[in-house]
Write a structure and sequence with these properties.
Shape: elongated
CATH superfamily of the largest domain: Fumarase/aspartase (Central domain)
CATH architecture of the largest domain: Up-down Bundle
Bound molecules: arginine
CATH topology of the largest domain: Fumarase C, Chain A, domain 2
Strand content: under 5%
Number of strands: 4
Low-confidence stretches: none
Structural class: mainly alpha
Number of helices: 16
Strand order of the largest sheet: 1-2
Mean pLDDT: 96
């Protein structure tokens, strides 16, 4: 079935049909498409745009379709161009002639805009819940490893000791901003576009606010051209997803490095590791590698959506059909990534002995040593220089700060006293 055809003398070629079809991916919007149609048809009946009896028949048919979607029995009809056509075909089959009135005062342009916004609301809610879950896992890690200090790195070199809770706190801060970004995006998603029709609204006496209320939207998109051509919120959603991945990929890299034989700061649980087909000893951090790898996919989605929209004249253009490829990919990827990260991080064990040992004689207490001299009256420049010289001496002698006697230390600065040792790493 087609939603058009009267104007054509010839059937479209099979190749054209296949190329223009979106049913293979937009079937995922079935639930929202049906719910949107229920609200729309209720409004058509209330406004007497179609007879109430017809509206009831259509709505009854739509509930049936919804039940099949919800129970997982709905199999999309690939002979239909898109999910809107598929559902309309079913409604006409169930409701007869009345079904042909469902698409009054509506276009697929505003219909798809509505479906996507409804889909996005649900996705954003699940994603923010998943972010909260991951935040709680980091909070638990901090609690379980209370008091543990680990080397803080800059330039991938030991810099200064930091507490594990400062490290988890950094990820909690990133993830909290990620959640905020999605919640902020939600505000711009949660506006109802239906009623814009193709682009210019309709002369039929529709009630957009009624439809919005039915579907839980607090307001309607005012400008009808904007309602069908705006995909900013899709870009925002994918950008927010890309930023989540950027954060997760940094964690992933730390876990890959920290689980090496050289570091052994962490032990990744067996259930979340993989082996090698040739090397029996291998335990690979595949999940973290794939978190890093899948980041590329979502960055690609962001480049994809921006490229699709660039230079598009107003209002709706078929290019926009392709937005769903990137939208679904980003949404699926970010949900899966947050979920697996929470699972694996909940089982990661921090190896206290190795972490503490790594800080032996690593001079990561040098800043504290310099601050000690500042407290004794030296300028920071002078203090930096004195401690630098002590470090050089220790490196040459292959010893740590603590192995120097007070007499030896006093050669570098007479400001150093017995209390100097107390500021050094344990
Ligand atoms: N499949 C289309 C999309 O995803 C729906 C709107 C199509 N409108 C049209 N006039 N072809 O954007």
């Amino acid at each position: 079935m087609k939603l058009w055809g009267g104007r054509f003398e010839k059937e479209p070629s099979k190749a054209a049909e296949k190329f223009t079809s979106s049913i293979f991916f937009d079937y995922r919007l079935a639930e929202y498409d049906v719910l949107g149609s229920i609200a729309h048809v209720k409004m058509l009946g209330k406004q007497k745009i179609i007879p109430k009896a017809d509206a009831s028949k259509i709505i009854k048919a739509l509930w049936k379709v919804l039940a099949s979607v919800k129970s997982g029995k709905f199999v999309s009809d690939v002979s239909c161009e898109d999910i809107h056509t598929d559902i309309e075909k079913r409604v006409i089959k169930l409701a007869g002639e009345a079904g042909k009135k469902m698409h009054t005062a509506r276009s697929r342009n505003d219909q798809i805009a509505l479906d996507e916004r409804m889909y996005l609301r649900a996705e954003i809610n699940s994603i923010t819940a998943e972010i909260e879950e991951l935040i709680s896992v980091f909070a638990k890690i901090a609690k379980e490893n209370k008091g543990l200090a680990l080397p803080g790195f800059t330039h991938m070199q030991h810099a200064q000791p930091v507490s594990l809770s400062a490290w988890t706190g950094a990820y909690i801060a990133m993830l909290s901003r990620d959640a905020e970004r999605f919640k902020d995006c939600f505000k711009r998603v949660n506006i109802m576009p239906l009623g814009a029709c193709a682009l210019a609204g309709t002369s039929l006496p529709i009630d957009r606010v009624f439809v919005a209320k039915q579907l839980g939207f607090p307001s309607v998109v005012k400008n009808t051209i904007d309602a069908v051509s705006d995909r900013d919120h899709v870009v925002e959603f994918i950008a927010a997803s890309a930023i989540v991945f950027m954060h997760l990929s940094r964690l992933a890299e730390e876990m890959v490095i920290w689980s090496t034989k050289e570091f052994k700061y962490v032990e990744i649980p067996d259930e979340y590791s993989t082996g090698s087909s040739i090397m029996p000893q291998k335990k690979n951090p595949d999940i973290f590698e794939l978190l890093r790898g899948k980041t590329g996919r979502v960055y690609g989605n962001l480049a994809g959506i921006l490229t699709i929209l660039k230079g598009l004249p107003l209002a709706y253009n078929s290019d926009m059909q392709e937005d769903k490829i990137h939208l679904f990919s980003a949404a699926d990827s970010v949900k899966e990534a947050l979920d697996i990260t929470a699972l694996v991080m909940a089982g990661v064990k921090f190896n206290k002995e190795n972490i503490t040992y790594a800080m032996q004689n690593d001079f990561s207490d040098a800043v504290e040593a310099a601050n000690y001299l500042v407290k004794k009256g030296l300028s920071f420049k002078a203090a930096h220089n004195v401690i630098g010289k002590i470090v050089l001496h220790c490196v040459k002698e292959e010893i740590g700060f603590k192995e120097l006697s007070l007499t030896e230390l006093k050669v570098f600065s007479d400001k150093i006293g017995q209390d100097f040792y107390a500021v050094l790493n344990k």
